[in-house]
Automatic annotation (TrEMBL):
SMART domains: HTH_ARAC. It comes from Saccharibacillus kuerlensis. Signal peptide: none annotated. Keywords: Signal, Transcription, Transcription regulation, Transport. PANTHER family: IRON III DICITRATE-BINDING PERIPLASMIC PROTEIN, IRON(3+)-HYDROXAMATE-BINDING PROTEIN FHUD. Residues 171-269 form the HTH araC/xylS-type domain. This is Uncharacterized protein.
Length: 536
C-alpha cells in the first residue's frame, strides 16, 4: 500500500532563553512550530506579536522571520520543530514523485494552547536523538512513529475553536462550481440541492459571491479556458468541452462576451504573467514576466536588464495585482490556502513548489506546466555545456581534496545552505566542488539549510567558505559573529579562504539566475586561486 502523504521531520531542537541570552531571531527554513515547555515570553512571527506560555504551539510558514524574547525572570524553555508535508503527485512504473504540499496546514499563528504532557515527552526524546549517528532501522522506525504521533497532537486546534461551524450551503455550491465547471450547471438544480427557492437562492448567491450565479459560472469557465489556451495546444472544440460548453462556436461567443476578444486572438497575443517567484525560470523558457514581486527585483541584480520594465508589487497586495490584469499568475506553493484562493479569483494561477534541491529539475517541472518543455530543454543543454567548461577551468586550479560549502550569516547566526538556496547548487553541482562530509549528510542530502551553534562551527566548516550576509535589520549581530573566537579560529578564516558573495545577486537560484551566478563564482574563484598561487 502506498501512502499518499508523507510528513518529514527536518529538525527538532530544544531552545533556552535565560539571563545570558534572553532573545533569539531566525528564519523558518520550512514550516516551523515554536512550542513552549515552560516560562513566559513573546514571539513575533513576520511582525505579528503572540504571547508565549507553557503548552502553547505557534506555527510559522516557510520564510517567515521568527523573533523570540523572554518576558519574565523565569527561564523560557521551547522547542523549534521544522518539517515538510508531501503529497503523492505522480505514480508510475518504478517511480513515485512526491511534491511539497503545505496548503492544508493551519494558517500561521497560535495553533494550540494546551498540549498534553505526552507531547513534551515525545519532544524531549526526539530532540535527544537529533543528529545521533548510526541509528538502527528499528530505532529509526520508532523515531518516525513518535514524530507522527507528535505531529497529530500539534495539529489539534485550540480548544476554543474545536466546535465545528456548519458550512453554509452557498459555500458548498461555490466549491461545486469550482470543481464541476465542465458539467451542466443549472440554477434550479443547485437551488434545489441547497434547499432554497430559486429566487431566494439567486439573492443569497449574489450576497456571498458578489455576482450573479450565471456570471460566476462564466468567470470560472473562462478562467479555466484561458489557462488551457495559454498552456495547451487543444483546439477550440476540445477546450469548449473541457470547460462546459457544447461546441467551439458557442464557447468562442461566451469568451468574447467576457474578454472582449476572440479566444484565438487571446492565444496569439503576448501574455502578461505576474511572477510571485520563478522569474529566472520564466526567462530561461523565453518568457518575460510583466509583473514581479518586489523582492525579485531588489535581489536579482543579475536579472536587472531583463526585469527593467516589469512592474513591481508586494506579494500580499491583491488590489495591485488585480489592477494590472495579468493573464496568468505564477505562485509559490508556500503561500497559504486563503492567499492562493485570492489569486485564483484574479486570474488563472499556477502553483509550484519553491526551493527544490535541483533548480534544473524545478525548471523542467515548471516548463511542463507552462507548455514550454522544448524551450526549457534547449536552455538546460546550453547551461550544462557552460557548466562543464567552467568546471574544467576551476578544477584545474582548485586544490585536490579540499572542500567548499555555501553559508549565510543572518541575525548573528550561521546557516549552512543546501542546494535549493543561494549559490550552493552552482558550487556543488555545476562546478563539482565537494562539501564536507557532515554538510553533505546533514544539509545537502536532506535538502534543507541548517542553523549551526557557535560551538559546532568547526564541524561544518569547509576549506573554502562562500557566504552571504543578510543585513535588512542591521549588522550588529553579524559583527559579533565575525568577532567571535569560534569564527576567528576557523582555518578558512585564518588562511583567507572565505568568499563574501553579494546577497542581491544570489538571493534566487532559478533558471537564468544560476547561469549568471555560475559566471560570477567561476570568475571569483579563478581570480582568488590565482592570487594565492602567486603568493605561494
Amino acid at each position: 500500500m502506498i501512502d499518499n502523504e508523507h510528513v518529514l521531520l527536518r529538525e527538532i531542537a530544544a531552545l533556552l532563553l535565560d539571563d545570558e541570552r534572553d532573545e533569539d531571531t531566525f528564519f523558518a527554513g520550512s514550516p516551523t512550530w515554536i512550542v513552549v515547555e515552560s516560562g513566559v515570553g513573546v514571539v513575533r512571527v513576520d511582525g505579528t506579536l503572540i504571547n508565549l506560555y507553557a503548552g502553547a504551539a505557534i506555527l510559522a510558514e516557510y520564510g517567515m522571520k521568527i523573533e523570540l524574547r523572554r518576558a519574565s525572570p523565569e527561564h523560557l524553555r521551547l522547542y523549534r520543530i521544522s518539517f515538510d508535508r508531501y503529497r503523492l503527485a505522480l505514480e508510475g512504473r518504478g517511480e513515485l514523485v512526491y511534491q511539497a504540499d503545505n496548503e492544508a496546514l493551519p494558517s500561521a499563528g497560535l495553533v494550540h494552547s494546551g498540549l498534553p504532557r505526552r507531547a513534551f515527552s515525545l519532544m524531549r526524546e526526539l530532540a535527544a536523538d537529533e543528529g545521533r549517528d548510526g541509528q538502527t532501522s528499528e530505532k529509526s522506525l520508532t523515531r518516525q512513529r513518535h514524530w507522527l504521533e507528535l505531529f497529530q497532537m500539534l495539529l489539534l486546534p485550540v480548544p476554543a475553536a474545536r466546535e465545528q461551524v456548519k458550512e453554509p450551503p452557498i459555500h458548498r455550491i461555490l466549491r461545486r462550481i469550482d470543481t464541476e465547471y465542465a458539467q451542466k450547471l443549472s440554477r434550479e438544480e443547485l437551488a434545489e440541492d441547497s434547499g432554497y427557492h430559486p429566487h431566494y437562492f439567486s439573492r443569497l448567491f449574489r450576497q456571498e459571491a458578489g455576482m450573479s450565479f450565471s456570471d460566476y459560472v462564466l468567470r470560472v469557465r473562462i478562467n479555466k479556458a484561458k489557462e488551457l489556451l495559454m498552456l495547451s495546444r487543444l483546439s477550440m472544440s476540445e477546450i469548449a468541452v473541457r470547460v462546459g460548453y457544447p461546441d467551439g462556436l458557442y464557447f468562442s461567443r461566451k469568451f468574447k462576451q467576457a474578454e472582449g476578444l476572440h479566444p484565438t486572438e487571446f492565444r496569439r497575443r503576448p501574455k502578461r504573467i505576474a511572477a510571485l517567484q520563478f522569474a529566472g525560470a520564466l526567462l530561461a523558457m523565453g518568457l518575460k514576466p510583466a509583473v514581479v514581486e518586489r523582492r525579485i527585483s531588489d535581489y536579482s541584480l543579475q536579472l536587472a536588464e531583463e526585469l527593467e520594465n516589469a512592474v513591481r508589487i508586494d506579494e500580499t497586495d491583491s488590489e495591485a495585482i488585480e489592477r494590472l490584469k495579468p493573464d496568468l499568475i505564477l505562485a509559490p506553493a508556500y503561500l497559504n490556502r486563503e492567499r492562493l484562493e485570492e489569486l485564483r479569483e484574479i486570474a488563472p494561477t499556477i502553483v509550484h513548489p519553491w526551493l527544490e534541491a535541483d533548480p534544473v529539475r524545478q525548471l523542467e517541472h515548471l516548463a511542463a506546466k507552462l507548455g514550454r518543455s522544448a524551450e526549457a530543454s534547449d536552455w538546460i543543454a546550453a547551461f550544462q555545456r557552460r557548466a562543464a567548461e567552467a568546471r574544467s577551468r576551476v578544477q584545474a586550479v582548485f586544490p585536490p581534496g579540499e572542500t567548499a560549502a555555501f553559508y549565510e550569516i543572518a541575525y548573528g547566526n550561521l546557516y549552512v545552505l543546501d542546494q535549493g538556496v543561494r549559490g550552493a547548487y552552482v558550487l556543488h553541482e555545476a562546478l563539482g566542488l565537494r562539501p564536507p562530509e557532515r554538510v553533505h549528510r546533514d544539509v545537502i542530502v536532506p535538502g534543507r539549510y541548517k542553523r549551526i551553534a557557535p560551538e559546532r562551527f568547526a564541524e561544518y566548516a569547509a576549506d573554502h567558505m562562500f557566504f552571504t550576509v543578510y543585513t535588512e535589520d542591521g549588522e550588529a549581530g553579524n559583527e559579533r559573529l565575525f568577532q567571535s573566537p569560534e569564527w576567528c579560529r576557523l582555518p578558512a578564516v585564518q588562511e583567507g579562504r572565505i568568499y563574501r558573495v553579494p546577497l542581491e545577486r544570489f538571493w534566487f537560484n532559478d533558471g537564468v539566475s544560476i547561469e549568471r551566478q555560475l559566471d560570477w563564482i567561476t570568475g571569483l574563484l579563478l581570480e582568488r586561486l590565482s592570487e594565492q598561487s602567486a603568493a605561494d
